[in-house]
Structures are given as C-alpha cells and as structure tokens.
Design the sequence.
C-alpha cells in the first residue's frame, strides 16, 4: 500500500476554495480504488453528494466528510497529482477523469470507466 492524502475541496460563494484534508494509508492506484476502496459502489450510485459521503463512510472506516460540492479525490494538497479522481455529474452524462501526476490517464463516461478500471493490473 501507498500512503495518500484524501482531500475534499469545497468553496463558499465569494470565498477562496478550501480543502478538508484526511491522511489515509491506502492504495489510491486504480487497482486500489477498484479492489480496496470499492469505487464501483459510488460509480453505480446516483452520484449525489450524500451517495459520495456514504461511500466515504463505508470505505474510509467511518470517516465523515462535510462541505462537498463535487466528488473529487486529490492525492496531495488539493492539487491534481499522483492518482487523482474527479467525478462530474454534468448535464449530459456523468464523467470520470483520472490523473497520474499532471498527465490525464483516463476520461470518459461510466461505461468506459467500468471497462478501463476492470483492465487495470
């Protein structure tokens, strides 16, 4: 396992973005998200903020996240770096983006993400 900081970004209107940090020993690689953090439980949900909070509670040993406006998992200090995930419930379809450091390694809808994450080794 690798160590990771799970950071939840939130912003009140008229204020600068703020980050709620949680240090976590865990594997944020795509295989870890799939096998250890059970990311498909969230992917197959309704993508509401409450569903994201429930997924966090279940997979991060009861941790309670607050102030979430968009589901995101950033690895370090709120920046897209090593294995970061953004879940966008857009107007047309839900999309997922994944970065490894500053390189985007995946972007697509639920069907494409499901196929992509199943192929990870």
Sequence:
């Amino acid at each position: 396992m690798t160590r990771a900081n799970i950071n939840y970004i939130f912003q009140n209107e008229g204020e600068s973005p703020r980050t709620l940090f949680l240090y976590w020993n865990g594997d944020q690689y795509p295989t870890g998200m799939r096998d250890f953090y059970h990311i498909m439980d969230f992917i197959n949900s309704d993508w509401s903020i409450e569903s994201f909070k429930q997924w966090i509670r279940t997979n991060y040993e009861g941790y309670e996240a607050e102030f979430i406006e968009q589901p995101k998992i950033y690895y370090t200090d709120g920046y897209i770096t090593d294995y970061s995930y953004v879940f966008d419930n857009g107007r047309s379809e839900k999309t997922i983006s994944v970065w490894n450091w500053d390189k985007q390694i995946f972007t697509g809808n639920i069907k494409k993400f499901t196929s992509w994450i199943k192929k990870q080794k």
